[in-house]
Amino acid sequence: MSRIIVALLTTLVMIAGPAANAEQSKSFGDYTVHYAAFTTDMLSPEVARLYKIRRSKNRAILNISVLKKVLGTTGQPVQAQVEAAATNLNRQLKNLSVRELSSNGAIYYIAETSVNNEETLNFELNIIPEGENIALSFSFQQQFFTE
């Protein structure tokens, strides 16, 4: 069963890349934060069902992972306190409820929100890796196409 969960989590991350025109990342000293936002209809029905995500062209998902840099590796996943908010170009705030998904050492943080066709969201992220007391803060913009 754990192999299935790892495979599904890997699928979630792999889908994020193409859907968001390439996986994005930011480097902060000892940490790298990978992030992507895309519509939930890009998820397979199995992944959506497993993580109780409603598949829809009008729902977006934010996917975040935090890796501690370890020499000779792609990084070690770490738990973090993740806060996220999104505003559209009309400055309407969309509160995002972030939840953690983890299995076999992989850790992801996801949040969902509704989106309209051609809507652009500005995401504001504040991430505090476990054991740290300084937030890794950044923002990014993503436009969604639902039609």
Structural description of this entry:
By secondary structure, the protein is of the alpha+beta class. Helix content is 16%, strand content 48%. The protein has helices at residues 2-19, 45-50; strands spanning 24-28, 31-39, 59-68, 76-77, 80-88, 93-95, 99-103, 106-114, 120-129, 136-143. Strands 1, 2, 3, 4, 7 and 8 form a 6-stranded antiparallel sheet that branches. The chain starts with a helix and ends with a strand. The model is unreliable at 1-9 and 13-21 (pLDDT under 50).
Give the overall shape.
globular
Order of helix and strand elements from N to C terminus: HEEHEEEEEEEE
Uncertain runs with pLDDT below 50, 5 residues or more? Answer: 1-9, 13-21
Q: Main sheet, how many strands, which sense, barrel?
A: 6 strands, antiparallel
Distance between the terminal alpha carbons, to the nearest Å? 36 Å
Rounded average pLDDT: 87
SS-derived structural category: alpha+beta
Give the radius of gyration. Answer: 15 Å
Number of strands: 10
Helical content class: 10-25%
Please report which band the strand proportion falls in: under 5%, 5-15%, 15-25%, 25-35%, 35-45% or over 45%.
Answer: over 45%
Total helical segments: 2
Could you write a compact summary of the structure shown?
The protein has two helices and ten strands; from the N terminus they run H-E-E-H-E-E-E-E-E-E-E-E. The protein has helices at residues 2-19, 45-50; strands spanning 24-28, 31-39, 59-68, 76-77, 80-88, 93-95, 99-103, 106-114, 120-129, 136-143.
